[in-house]
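Following up on my earlier thread - several people asked me to post the actual chain instead of describing it. Fair enough. Here it is, all 154 residues.
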Amino acid sequence: MGGELSAGSRRRSWGTSLRLILEYFFSLSEGLMTRILILFFSAIAFVGVLVGGGLPIPPLCRETGFARVLYKLHGNQILFSISTGFLVSIFTWFLVVVLPDLNRRKLLRKRLRTCYLNFRKNVIRTLLLVSDDHDTCVEAISDPMKVQRTLLHG
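Reply from S.P.:
Thanks for posting it. Predicted structure:
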């Protein structure tokens, strides 16, 4: 019983994973074109899995010019195998490369924030000790505006 997850925690976990995936693929950092191409080819591979696997062609697609191509590829095992291999490779790449990188960045950001806050508290404490205002030292550490008023107006 201890190792089981409730439906709510699984839903939150999948929601968090989906949010991380969307943040990664649609962030405006370097490699955006690569991510767009990966999403594009993944969508094509997904259609290849559906069509190559022999699933019925959806009624919405039957009336389009694209339907002739779908009927020709319907049940094609080579298309199915290549598309499945591509999707599995992308999934593995995401698990091995992307998720650890996102976790590393998140951890680094958290550590930098903690170091910055500790540095700021130490600077404030030092400035207050130098200004001979020992009474407000502990209170002022949490309120930077109070430190500014103390130092400027004595």
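Residues 120 and 133 are 18 Å apart (CA to CA). That should answer part of your original question.
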